[in-house]
Specification:
- The chain has 419 residues and is α/β, with parallel strands linked by helices.
- It has two domains: 14-132 and 300-361, Periplasmic binding protein-like II (D-Maltodextrin-Binding Protein, domain 2, 3-Layer(aba) Sandwich), CATH 3.40.190.10; 136-297 and 369-416, 3-Layer(aba) Sandwich (D-Maltodextrin-Binding Protein, domain 2), CATH 3.40.190.10.
- 47% of the residues lie in helices and 13% in strands.
- It contains 20 helices and eleven strands.
- The strands form three sheets. It has a five-stranded mixed β-sheet.
- Helix 9 packs across helix 10 (218-228) and helix 19 (379-394) runs antiparallel to helix 20 (400-416).
- The radius of gyration is 23 Å and the shape is globular.
- Mean pLDDT is 94; it is low at 1-19.
- Bound molecules: alpha-D-glucopyranose.
- Alpha-D-glucopyranose is lined by residues 62, 86-88, 133, 188-189, 192, 262, 299-301.
């Protein structure tokens, strides 16, 4: 009798979970360890809830991802339930996502308030923060010691130190050695790097919070002129085609003194098979000079649920799980992805794995936003014009002053159609 009852119970439980079980598809980035950590997190949720997950990988360049998402969403496709979206996209894509507030049970209160504001469009929470970012400067501790140098306080100092180390290492026989690597390809990553140079010189943030175009100014021109002087001298010509991963490849193989990158490069650089394991330091990006400041561009990724999903409730449950404190802690420790939950910056396990999360707390809290909120749906066009102008300066096609004058009038044209 007892046996029969037990069997009946198991069968009905299995039936119940079968009736509700679904496959939820999630689009994840694939830069560094993004894909593997997304997969392990989503699979843990699937196991816990009796559902299955499908992981959809996306291109590394964020603007290419945007184009793909825009295709999917404008066709109202139900193929992807959960979208990993860039911090600059709520204004561009927000209309396609469900309001997550009814699902979060107030969890958003634990996250950085500025990111919650960023992810709120017309009063709706269109995405939950997953990880945040700010640009930082990686340097080779061993080489700075060898040449009797300290981490640079200004970009000019970085230029001088990079020159000195590069000369020394080349004389010592490494003809592949370079002073500095960064994101120089004409894409969104270059917008981030160039915003850092310009704002650190006191040249502003391209467009200010009121929507005024500010980029055509002498400080911005000085910043871009300095950076253009690096190409072929302390940075390889090839940097004009580098994204995050290409820069990391050169630095991690031991062939660069400095690298501008996001925090994810820390874990991989200190991985068991990394030639620079335990030889890396991380500081805030240098100032432009006297009167300048340390600027790191605010980056980061959110999770959003498509309005066209056939399983919005389950998809929202997956988002709540992946953005939770436990999961953000795991991702911080295993992959040095910055949590968006404030309390994790005081967590001893997190700080042991990534000490600079504590040392550079101010850099993360004061990271400078790209003008995506004020330009809304026009942001990608604004950024495309900006990175093309910067690219022309870096490649020597145009002088900084000329490129900024053209940019100024192109941006005015976009503004004319409204932001
Ligand atoms: C990182 C940042 C993202 C930025 C991108 C640019 O992924 O998190 O915000 O747009 O880099 O390459």
């Amino acid at each position: 009798m007892f046996m029969r009852l037990a069997l009946a119970a198991t069968a009905s439980m299995a039936l119940t979970s079968f009736a509700h079980a679904a496959e939820i598809s999630i689009s994840c980035g694939a830069v560094g360890q993004e894909l593997s950590l997304c997969k392990s997190g989503a699979e843990a949720w699937a196991k816990k809830t009796g559902n299955t997950v499908k992981i959809v990988s996306t291109p590394n360049d964020t603007n290419e991802r945007l184009a793909l998402y825009q295709q999917q969403l404008s066709a109202s496709s139900s193929e992807i339930d959960v979208f990993q979206i860039d911090v600059i996209w709520p204004g561009i894509l927000g209309q396609h996502f469900v309001n997550l507030s009814p699902y979060t049970k107030g969890a958003e209160k634990e996250h950085f308030p500025a990111i919650i504001v960023n992810n709120t469009v017309n009063g709706e929470l269109v995405a939950m923060p997953w990880f945040t970012d700010a640009g930082v400067l990686y340097y080779r501790k061993d080489l700075l010691d060898k040449y009797g140098l300290k981490p640079p306080a200004t970009w000019q100092e970085m230029t001088d130190e990079a020159t000195k180390i590069q000369d020394g290492e080349r004389k010592a026989g490494n003809d592949k050695f370079w002073g500095v690597v960064f994101q120089g390809r004409a894409y969104e990553g270059l917008t981030c790097d160039a915003l850092e140079w310009i704002d650190s010189f006191g040249g502003g943030t391209i467009i200010d919070a009121e929507g005024n175009i500010t980029v055509n100014n002498p400080k911005a021109a000085a910043a871009l002129t300095l950076a253009a002087g690096w190409i072929g001298k302390i940075a390889p010509e090839g940097v004009l085609n580098y994204g995050e991963e290409e820069a990391r490849g050169v630095f991690q193989s031991g062939n660069a003194a400095f690298m501008r990158n996001w925090p994810y490069a820390w874990s991989l650089g200190n991985g068991a098979d990394s030639p620079v394991k335990d030889k890396i330091g991380v500081v805030a990006l240098p100032k432009g000079g006297e009167g300048g400041k340390n600027t790191g561009t605010l980056g980061g990724w959110q999770l959003a649920v498509s309005k066209y999903s056939k399983n919005t409730d389950l998809a929202a449950d997956l988002v709540v799980y992946l953005t939770s404190k436990d999961e953000q802690k795991r991702r911080a420790i295993e992959g040095s992805y910055n949590p968006t939950i404030t309390a994790l910056y005081d967590d001893p396990d997190v700080l042991k794995a990534v000490p600079f999360f504590g040392d550079l707390k101010a850099t993360f809290m004061n990271a400078v936003a790209r003008p995506s909120r004020v330009t809304g749906a026009n942001y990608n066009e604004v950024s495309t014009n900006f990175w093309n102008a910067v690219s022309n300066v870096l490649s020597g096609k145009e002088k900084a002053e000329d490129a900024l004058t053209t940019l100024d009038s192109n941006l005015a044209g976009i503004k004319g159609s409204g932001w």
